[in-house]
Fold this protein.
Amino acid sequence: AFASGMAAVNATMQLLASGDHVIVGYDCYLTTYDIFANDLPRYGIESSLVDLTDIEAVQAAVRPNTRMVYIESPTNPLLDVVDLVAMAEIGRASGAITVVDNTFASPYCQNPIDFGIDLVVHSTTKYLGGHSDLLGGAVISRTPELAAQIRACQYNQGAVPSAFDCWLLIRGIRTLGVRMRQHMVNAQAVAEWLEAQPEVTRVLYPGLASHRGHDLASRQMRGGYSGMVSFEVEGGSSAARRVSEHTRIFQLATSLGGIESLIFPPTAWLETAPDLMAEIPGSPWAQYPGMLRLSVGIESTRDLIDDLDRALAALRE
């Protein structure tokens, strides 16, 4: 256990050394991207941004010094689904450690170690805690050897969670299944409703048949498709911002995985940091300027849809 999700992510990076190379998905959590782009190069570690849904592209990116393949599935914020069996096979063939950030799926929906992945990372702040009142992270290892190395990182960095955060996390885990089932009922209903709205140009949710990774998700996410939904509205980032400002139940915030529903317009937020956005090659945010990301909570399904309906109506005013 770690003091935060990013402390857990950083612990996996401690397995790397100067001269190593990492393959990482181009669609990933922005702070994780910052580690690969700005922190690791100072220690002589190179990274390649790759579309991890393209197996041939991943294979082509492997170098003799590739030490790690770092994966999110579903990804943040495009909710792409990565073939974990294929990633594990590439890792074994190249001698690289495979790491999956499983925060969006939660262990209720997906267990990457079942597919041969070496290390699994969670921000326990999110679905595992479930109430937006704690900070924590976790790394789960497939082998005792890697577990010992991660444990040493935790100890040496002092990145341990507080006793009270651990107590809150245990409380949250007890209701994980109940919460996740309602998250997913609501997310599926919201995603299907959004697909039918004229202001919405694209809906990204693995539970939709229209999602390009739906079949893979159905095999891989055995517990369901989780509660994260992304969608795009006409009118670009200004329209996305306008929608986010007109919800009442969905609160404007960057976090996720709690019982309350949250809405976040990634591109509108990144426009406040244009230098950061410009340095991300093939930025998913640049591709979808009108994107909004929802963390769908466990409130009344009807109330959530009515709230989004009211917000989308603001685009017609």
